[in-house]
Amino acid sequence: MSDNPSTPVISVVIPIYNEAENLPDLVGRVGAALERTGKPFELICIDDGSRDDSAHILAELAASTPWLQPRYLIRNYGQTAALQAGFDIVRGEYIVTLDGDLQNDPDDIPALIEKMEASPEIDMISGWRKERQDAALSRKLPSTIANRLISKVTGVSLHDYGCALKVYRREIIDRIHLYGELHRFIPTLAAEAGARIVEVPVKHHARTRGVSKYGIDRTFRVALDLLLIKFLMRYLHRPLHAFGGVGLWLLTPGILALGWLGILKLLGESIGGRPLLLVGIMLCLMGVQLIAIGVLGEILIRVYHEPSGRDLYRVREAPRPRAQSSR
Length: 327
Description:
It contains 10 helices and 7 strands. By secondary structure, it is an alpha/beta fold. It is elongated and about 90 Å long. The model has no long low-confidence stretch (mean pLDDT 84).
């Protein structure tokens, strides 16, 4: 292994939050695993505003470890921001993500890199904790529900969206940008960026040190983020279809209701005290507002794309010719 971190082939990004007890073992095991690949590498640990001694331990380890590149965020921004902070400075051809709790096994990394090198058609490998070692039902059940729901809604079918162990080609990471809590949906964002994804079973260990940062409340956050992802996938470049469609569904019965009341008024009936009048007015107002929001969204999309010449599409390299079978 080269001690010169100037030209890494593999970049490992690990968000760190209150993992002081795991850090020495984590850095050592990741280094030992990547040394077996024979390729230069860098380990980017993003301290996400830890309140324990994680930052100090990272600094001490970096002083004697040339391939360790720590970064320190001024406060706890969350896993998504920490990952993006790492993606912003990666230099390797292959990008690996991993959690800092050692539940994923760093020894799986060389095999995943080897698989990606041997398969040029693969852009992303997602780990699958097939034999998950979490004992708490509060972690397993929400995860199972979330995986099935995300796969159904996004169309990117994976057994384990929550597994942090993933490998990407650099060009895929360069095409996506994370914000909010979209780290859970990186496979979906990668698929939207043109990535061809495979899922590979990986080892999983029970947590032995530190405290889990996840709970059952995460399920509700996933549901809200899933709505955003669905909108981004289907309507990002045509918001009028989303808002305008709902607006028309509301506007149509509103117009019909007011039209019916108008006929009754012309026939001499009193309509001022009818609840249908208020319902019709409210439906029309909401429908018009939603259609207006859709139009504004279309204008914003034009403002976003036209002045800077941003492309609405990306192209990939032509596939390699298939080898001719000898007869």
